[in-house]
């Protein structure tokens, strides 16, 4: 099936119209007309080859929401017309120990990510959600709760699960003091989820213009992370800190804010290494860890949790023709708080 999309042809030129073939719907597959796709900072890191060299053309996009248009004969959980989501993964072996524990993102054979991953069906690479439709194995398709708005739900498919999973893994509950570092796409959803879990939430931002928004989003306090006095007031006090920052920054300043046995989980993936002063861990028996998205079962659990607590993203809806400008604004931390592409705009290009 010919599919219209936007792609990067290399690391330095703007994304532009591109078309390619999607596979035919197999017996386990669901074909989805893409209605909305969120713009994750990982899209930008990938297309600009900031982590490692991407394979081009690269069609990014892993916060996909759309409508089922066709299902294979072995698919009975979905039917034509259903509103569904696809996140960062489209396949895994489903048989290894990690897959069996519902942690497909750590599949021992390698999870197949929604874009820039080897595609076993075509022999090429996977193409993501900046496109008009996608064909996905039924095991990697999520149900969208009926009460949620589709455009503002799209970012939950990556930013939502990436923040929900570590909050749950570290047992964030009522009465705990939780920090969220960086108020971008991941950070603003992290704030909403931590609040919904009952935590006392403190946002750390480098952008004074975001202070009022942070309070509106549910933060109990906001700290200008460039102000040392404001930082000092929170020394040794946090149970858990979620760091969503996409660029190089000083993590030791945050580790010192953890109380004894507190944990800082890094989900932001700066392209440069971060400097760790081990004494910030040793005094206080603090720990630092990382977290990668979340498995499919937990992604569904997160969507249902968001349905129950009415959590969706604050978005700026853009036509796909504005994607390059959106990337430039992401680099300036100028997004309130997730760009979402209205995929109907793709028809104006072709
Ligand atoms: P985003 O919307 O651009 O937000 C990042 C935020 O970090 C910015 O809004 C800004 O917040 C802060 N920031 C940016 N540059 C900074 C700097 N130099 N110093 C201090 N703070 C800075 O990005 P996102 O989509 O939320 O993604 C964040 C990171 O998570 C990216 O690296 C992305 O690749 C990664 N990610 C990881 C996973 C995973 O599974 N682990 C999944 C998805 C994304 P303030 O303006 O408030 O300071
Ligand atoms: Zn993402």
TrEMBL record:
PROSITE patterns, per database record: ADH_ZINC (PS00059), D_2_HYDROXYACID_DH_1 (PS00065)
GO function term, MF aspect, one: oxidoreductase activity
InterPro entries (alphabetical): ADH-like_C, ADH-like_N, ADH_Zn_CS, CAD-like, D-isomer_DH_CS1, ER, GroES-like_sf, NAD(P)-bd_dom_sf
Keyword list, A-Z: Metal-binding, Oxidoreductase, Zinc
EC number: 1.1.-.-
EC supergroup of this enzyme: oxidoreductase
Domain annotation Enoyl reductase (ER): ranges: 8-341
Cofactors named for this entry: Zn(2+)
Family according to the record: Belongs to the zinc-containing alcohol dehydrogenase family.
Protein name: NAD(P)-dependent alcohol dehydrogenase
